[in-house]
Amino acid sequence: MNDFILFIRGSYRKSDIPFYRALCHSKCTIAVDGGYNFFRKAGLFPDIMLGDFDSLKRFPRNLPTTTTVLKYPSRKNKTDLHLAVEYCLSEKARTIDIIQPNVGEIDHFLGNIFLLAHSNLISDSKIQNNIRIINPKYEIKLVVDNTVTFLDCVGDIVSILPLSPKIVLDVTGAEYKVKNANLALGETRSLRNHITDHKATFHIHGKALIIRNFRRRYSSHSYE
To answer: What's the pTM?
Structure first.
């Protein structure tokens, strides 16, 4: 499988279990350290367990032989999530979904977001536009010189955060239509744009994060 879904440490609500289970369909599932708590709550086993496992209160003893365990030392220069993304890339990943159920500790949250844009890590053009952080409330997606099209997402709120020194942005199908807008790193003019049409497009020249807050539950058919 070339599609991966990574579960990281966080508070997994029982009411969200069906949402996450649906996202797992046809993907290689990875429990990143404390992310195993999702599988424990869902009554599932991951395809891979990865990390130093310092966030687990107890390591599962009933793992099936189909679960691969990749253990790393606790003293290392990379986070468990960084190592998990590197593993997916080494396996020629086509898509990577990172499940971060809540903000949690702010340094970890921000570090995970910036990991999406790590130039030395996400250098393959085939994966640049296919890696995201997602939970039932929002998704954060890396976009590099690409157009993102949303279908049937009226009411969702989309924000663009430039990561390049400058990006050029075009938007259609939203409350604020934009044509050839030049945005510098750190600008906030591209925050909180409501989708108003059946089809909304966001074309970004440069590197940026696109954040979509869901008005209703996410659907895999939201993209064209």
So the answer is: 0.89
